[in-house]
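Protein Record: Sequence and Backbone Structure Tokens
======================================================

Structure line: whole-number tokens from a learned vocabulary of local backbone shapes, matched to residues.

Purpose: to set a sequence beside its fold so the mapping can be learned.

___
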Amino acid sequence: MFHNNCMLLSHRLITLGHEYQDRMPPVLQQHTVTFVDLAHRLRVLATETFLRQMRAQRDNLLGILRDCALVKNTDVEKCIRQCLRQLELLQTVWEQVLPSTVYCKTLGCLVNTMVQELVLRTMALEDIPADTAVQLVAAFAVVIARAPKVLKVTLEWEVYCPVGCFPGALS
């Protein structure tokens, strides 16, 4: 909300001079009065605040995955479901608030971060026991099934999740 409010106020500051130009004194009507310098500050503030929130969400997801030892823990799928649940909660909050492109880029980035961490942690394993491999396959199947649903754009989700981590998931 803060991000959107700052962006709206920024837009209004830019268009304010044009909107009320005919109501200004004749001396000011010759020149367009704008508040571009303030608009830029508001946009920077909105962006910094939103990026800070994104970093916090990313750190939250990575924290959940770090607590989950892929070989030792029998609840790998539980950790992944917890991450996906966090993404779904963000979806319910951000989907109606953020512009579509910002929403998709943001959630795509968070999904991408989660999948990258899972892949890196899986590749770091030296020896994967058969039962752990079965668990990992089941866990990745959950990711393939649920993660694309977080993004509301049906066929354009690949644009926002550059890993290409869900081949054929939408077909």
Residues 1-53 form one domain. The helical segments are 2-19, 26-29, 36-66, 76-94, 100-123, 130-150, 157-160. The chain has a mean pLDDT of 78. The CA atoms of residues 11 and 39 lie 7 Å apart.
